[in-house]
Amino acid sequence: MENPWLHRFCVLLAVCTLFLVVAGASVTSNEAGLSVPDWPLSYGKVMPDMTGGVFFEHGHRLIASTVGFLTVILALWLWIVEDRRWMKWLGFAALLGVIVQGVLGGLTVKYLLPKPISISHACLAQLFFSTTVAIAIFTSPSWRRGPIIIEDSGWPSLHSLALALPIATLLQVALGAGYRHKAFSVIPHVVGAIFVTVLLMMVSVFVITQAANNAQLGTIGWALLSVTCVQVILGVGSILARASMNEAGRPPLSLILLTVAHVATGALTMAGSVALTVLVFRNVRSHANLASHSQGLRTVS
Which residues 6+ apart lie within 8 Å of 37 measured at CB? Predict the structure, then answer.
């Protein structure tokens, strides 16, 4: 049953989660990760003085708490009103994800920013954001109206490309997080960026050229192509800004802004790849499957 207010709430949660990703990137970019030495309280208080790095670190915690509260509401709402059992469990999975994310955030403070935990924390943030975007799609009126079937006439198949896309993008997110947390140099991230950019552009162009009769797929294809181009520009700008920075000095504002924007656009890229995969598997059929479906309809007739 269609529930427009539930869908609007899902969109709100996705927007708040993107803001949370931006806040998290601001903590790392401003080197404020240990500005608050305790957890879950901050200097033993619910609301400490918001000065210096505390503004970024505690602000991040406040936004995370808000997203967590909204996720609890969403999980309960889905469990009560949804007639699709898998959606009920998806809401529960989102709630579990935000709890694990909070624990990982606490562990980064307790154990003084251990690289594996910090990288996992960054990757799970992107996965959670992608999950909220997927839930927003699943609760949308267009999803309830059913698929608009198009034929996959290319090679490799859109299904295989769409399946590889979010996996490759998540690996690239992990490489970016590893670089930001100084686990390794920028080289793996740059090499991964070249591969993922080519894959993103190729899949986007394939979708755009084959989805003339499906507005949803065409829109997400163009959006993903545009976001990828912006992400490349921001990535190059971030690397150049970091290369020109004095290692002993505080990160300049230009580097902070570029890095935060790069992380946020990366989150949009990750979520866009997940959305594209979901819509491809819902709307695209191979020629053989379409022929089999048509034959089945003729037999029934």
Answer: 43, 109
Is residue 42 helix, strand or coil? strand
pTM of the model: 0.91
- Is residue 146 a contact partner of residue 82, using CB atoms and an 8 Å limit? no
Omega before residue 166 within 30° of 0, cis: no
Q: What's the pLDDT tens digit per position in 60-103?
A: 999 999 999 999 999 999 999 999 999 999 999 999 999 999 99
Query: Please, are residues 157 and 277 in contact by the beta-carbon 8 Å criterion?
Result: no
CA gap 270, 177 in Å, rounded: 14
Alpha helices for the chain (secondary structure H):
4-29, 53-81, 85-110, 115-138, 141-144, 158-180, 187-210, 215-243, 253-283, 287-300
- The CATH architecture to which 147-301 belongs is Up-down Bundle (1.20)
Q: Which of 267, 59, 61, 56 is closest to 176 using CA atoms?
A: 267
Write down the domain spans for the chain. 1-146, 147-301
Q: What does the pLDDT read at residue 300?
A: 36
Q: Tell which residue, 206, 211, 209, 171, has the closest CA to residue 192.
A: 171
